[in-house]
Amino acid sequence: MSYAFVQDVAASWEQYERLAAALVDPAPVGLILHVAGPTDEGFRTIDVWESEEEWERFRAEHLAPAIAALGGPSRPEPAFRELRPAHVVHGDRTSNRSQRTQEKEEQ
Questions:
Q1: Which residue, 8, 30, 41, 91, is the most exposed by fewest CB within 10 angstroms?
Q2: What is 19-54 written as a DSSP string?
Q3: Are 23 and 67 contacting, i.e. CB atoms less than 8 angstroms apart?
């Protein structure tokens, strides 16, 4: 099952750019979508992963070491909000995984 989250970080956009430059080329295994942009408080990211396990692996093996290299986690700590995708629009395709849709597919 895909896994998504929204993360708000109290750090500058420049800090995000330095961190992201080392992490997104090539795209991490299991990443479906990553969107980021500056906010009044810092920056926000929205990620969709193939699974929560893929996200946890990336966080442990790549993200945590990259954050440590930049001086450690930001203060205050980023706020994570889990999201279990039920409706995803990607380009010209739509995936609606609501219970009603799943029932129709099974018929």
A1: 91
A2: HHHTTSSSPPTTEEEEEEEE-SSSEEEEEEES-HHH
A3: no
**In contact, 74 and 16? CB cutoff 8 Å:** no
Based on the structure, what is the number of domains in the chain? 1
pLDDT at 7 exceeding the cut of 70: yes
Strand bridging mode 31-38 / 87-90 = unpaired
Structural domain boundaries enclosing 30: 3-106
Query: Quick check: 25 pLDDT over 50?
Result: yes
In tens, the pLDDT along 65-82 reads: 877 776 666 555 666 677
* Cα(47)–Cα(31) distance, integer angstroms: 8
Hey, how many other C-beta atoms are within 10 angstroms of the C-beta on 39?
A: 12
Q: Which amino acid is at 55?
A: W
What's the CATH code of the domain at 43? 3.30.70.100
The strand order across the sheet containing 43-49 reads 31-38, 43-49, 3-9, 79-83
